[in-house]
């Protein structure tokens, strides 16, 4: 396979990280109030996350880099957006902290799973649903329609915490199988 084609999904993942300072800068220029430019850029970045997964599978361009880095970039992306909304008083600390703790715990648990196995993290349906609801919530907050944002946030946060419990169960099972082998 052509190396350029093989790395398109990885390039989208890297692009998503590189957009974060631009997203923050755009939002900072519009706060308080709606930031439509930020919302469009966040939408583009979120769609690039979907596209990189689809392209990797359809082009059979899955790489070890993508299997491990893409989920980490996804967490960094959410972490940065939530931190940005908290920093500019769009979201309260009590709404942000549980989600950031969840991501921190997930990243810490990924280390032993990675050390003892070559299995990349698998995103559950709950995790996908949580990501979708939270990105929608973030979009509503960014364009200053907070009442709608809170509805999506409540659903997304519930699924997010629930998916973490599923990931912990999976991670423990993987580690137990590895220790038993």
How would the blueprint of this fold be written?
Blueprint: H1 3-6, H2 8-30, H3 36-58, H4 64-87, H5 93-116, H6 125-142, H7 146-180
Q: Explain this structure to me?
A:
The chain has 181 residues and is an all-alpha fold. The protein has a single domain, classed as Up-down Bundle (Four Helix Bundle (Hemerythrin (Met), subunit A)). The protein is built from seven helices and no strands. It has helices at residues 3-6, 8-30, 36-58, 64-87, 93-116, 125-142, 146-180. Helix 2 runs parallel beside helix 4 (64-87), helix 3 packs antiparallel against helix 6 and helix 6 (125-142) runs antiparallel to helix 7 (146-180). The N and C termini lie far apart (36 Å). The relative contact order is 0.12. The mean pLDDT is 86.
Span between termini: 36 Å
What class would the helix/strand composition place it in? mainly alpha
Q: Kindly report the average pLDDT value.
A: 86
What is the CATH class designation?
A: Mainly Alpha
Q: How helical, in percent, are the residues?
A: over 70%
Cα-atom Rg, whole angstroms? 17 Å
CATH H-level superfamily: CDP-alcohol phosphotransferase transmembrane (TM) domain
Number of domains: 1
What portion of the residues fall into strands of 2 or more residues?
Answer: under 5%
How would a crystallographer describe the biggest sheet? none
Here the CATH topology equals Four Helix Bundle (Hemerythrin (Met), subunit A)
Instruction: Identify the overall geometry.
Output: globular
User: How many strands in all?
Assistant: 0
Count of helical segments? 7
Give the CATH architecture. Answer: Up-down Bundle
